[in-house]
Amino acid sequence: xxxxxxxxxxxxxxxxxxxxxxxxxxxxxxxxxxxxxxxxxxxxxxxxxxxxxxxxxxxxxxxxxxxxxxxxxxxxxxxxxxxxxxxxxxxxxxxxxxxxxxxxxxxxxxxxxxxxxxxxxxxxxxxxxxxxxxxxxxxxxxxxxxxxxxxxxxxxxxxxxxxxxxxxxxxxxxxxxxxxxxxxxxxxxxxxxxxxxxxxxxxxxxxxxxxxxxxxxxxxxxxxxxxxxxxxxxxxxxxxxxxxxxxxxxxxxxxxxxxxxxxxxxxxxxxxxxxxxxxxxxxxxxxxxxxxxxxxxxxxxxxxxxxxxxxxxxxxxxxxxxxxxxxxxxxxxxxxxxxxxxxxxxxxxxxxxxxxxxxxxxxxxxxxxxxxxxxxxxxxxxxxxxxxxxxxxxxxxxxxxxxxxxxxxxxxxxxxxxxxxxx
Length: 423
Ligand SMILES: C[S@@+](CC[C@H](N)C(=O)[O-])C[C@H]1O[C@@H](n2cnc3c(N)ncnc32)[C@H](O)[C@@H]1O
Description:
Protein name: tRNA (Uracil-5-)-methyltransferase related enzyme
CATH superfamily of the largest domain: Vaccinia Virus protein VP39
Helix content: 10-25%
Bound molecules: S-adenosylmethionine
Largest sheet: 7 strands, mixed
Oligomer: single chain
Structural class: alpha/beta
Strand order of the largest sheet: 9-8-7-10-11-12-13
Domain TRAM: 2-60
CATH class of the largest domain: Alpha Beta
Keywords: Methyltransferase, S-adenosyl-L-methionine, Transferase
CATH architecture of the largest domain: 3-Layer(aba) Sandwich
EC number: 2.1.1.189
Number of helices: 9
Radius of gyration: 23 Å
Number of domains: 3
GO molecular function, one term: rRNA (uridine-C5-)-methyltransferase activity
């Protein structure tokens, strides 16, 4: 049977894939439908025809699963919102197990999912996009089709971010959307907000007016302007402080952290802390390398459990932040500046903690890790594909002790995973 765009089919999903799409089959052709849950029946509209599969969108749900919490959200940033929270944990564990089986050929020793009760308003960083309009309007992207739509309330925003963005959206300001592209907001537990305007140029229509307004909002402690380097990348390396400080501090128990508009920091603090506690529980007085250490959040957190921590980080600003934080912590810390693949071969330690960007580990680094024979490697990953790719190499020397799904991004299909490897 030949299918074409806009055909309408009736399907029943037999599983939900890792992108949150219901997977079904008609006449042996696979149909992917975002937002359709397992065992749900729906009328779907075909939106793309490929040789081996069809891409569809829900036209009408004919039956609803008991696992459904609400209607499917149109926003890409809420692509699992319709699934009950506890079932989202099960979904992540299943997707992780399947990926390990598919890629490594054996069952993953799955640990309990690290999660928090707070599954809404957890994001301490959100990026809004400027709509193509003369008057400033801000929004987020939908999934099928991918479109930028105006959004006023985004339920993952921290309360401080929500209050601040609502006030920004109330302003009637003329802007040039060809130059002014995004607004990023970061907040801390004191409900302070750092606002970053992202544009292709240092000057744009409406900039001064916008800054004058935003600086009057009581939660705002800093406003920066970041220069967008290209269409694909949101933030560039060039930032200017327009008001207050380009800095936000976080204090959580004995952990104190400091970031600027570009520093990496996990977006979900309660889950971050639980994950770091799990990492710390693997360390008992050993020497540790914290590789890809950023501002030092993992290294400083686990410092009390280690004999000595050596951090490796390539970004100079992160290294400065990490150095500024040193006096707050007791213990032996050293911060090495440089690329992991160049610095790590020269170092030795008993345990390695590794938290790379999505791209995973450099090929040459994997070879070195096998040669080094660490007692343990603790690998925190935000990309399942590169994690299993790297583990395929590391299994020459290390055995998988535990694979722990981390529910860092509730209501979404983004997956964080913590893996404990032993020599
Ligand atoms: C996922 S973040 C982890 C940061 C930190 N562990 C944390 O949880 O806050 C990855 C970090 O690796 C750094 N980085 C990226 N490539 C690197 C490389 N080749 N060598 C060393 N650091 C690198 C980035 O600057 C970033 O700070």
